């Protein structure tokens, strides 16, 4: 691979990583929804699936603004987070505990995305790429909201000791 010379090239690289991450999530979220017992949690995963499809589209718009073809570069971190999620799905646990584990896995995913979008947003800002920045900011807000919703659901599930 050619030596990266500019922050804009680094931004494109990071966006390719995120593009892969979001695509992996589009595949994983239906499985998470299926594995959830709590109705709110299941609905939350389904809603976030729709949002995630929008995140993929926003990244495609960002590539377009940067005159780059949308190209994914396998995000190993998301691969690992999703693998962990699959292990949880396979785990034998009572429904509440199983749901609590699913939330834990999903929040790790959200925090990873929040960190990644935070970085690309600040880079786009430095580069004066306002439109790209705004697109990414919208996604970041949805990731944050999702994370908060997961905490709310978690509080209702795990507030009492599970017998
Ligand atoms: Fe996302």
Descriptive overview:
The chain is mainly α. It is built from five helices and no strands. Helix 2 runs antiparallel to helix 5 (130-158) and helix 3 (76-90) packs antiparallel against helix 4 (95-126). It is elongated and about 50 Å long. The structure holds fe (ii) ion. Fe (ii) ion is lined by residues 22, 52, 55, 113, 139, 143. Fe (ii) ion (FE2) is lined by residues 22, 52, 55, 113, 139, 143.
Report the portion of residues in β strands.
under 5%
Bound molecules: fe (ii) ion
**Averaging pLDDT over every residue, what do you get?**
95
| Poorly predicted spans | none
Structural class per helix/strand content?
Answer: mainly alpha
Q: How many separate helices?
A: 5
Q: What's the number of extended β-strand segments?
A: 0
Concise overview:
This protein has helices spanning 7-35, 39-65, 76-90, 95-126, 130-158. It has 163 residues and is mostly helical.
Give the key terms.
5 helices, 81% helix, mainly alpha, 163 residues, binds fe (ii) ion, single chain
Give the topology.
Elements: H1 7-35, H2 39-65, H3 76-90, H4 95-126, H5 130-158
Bound molecules: fe (ii) ion (FE2).
Residues 22, 52, 55, 113, 139, 143 line the site of fe (ii) ion.
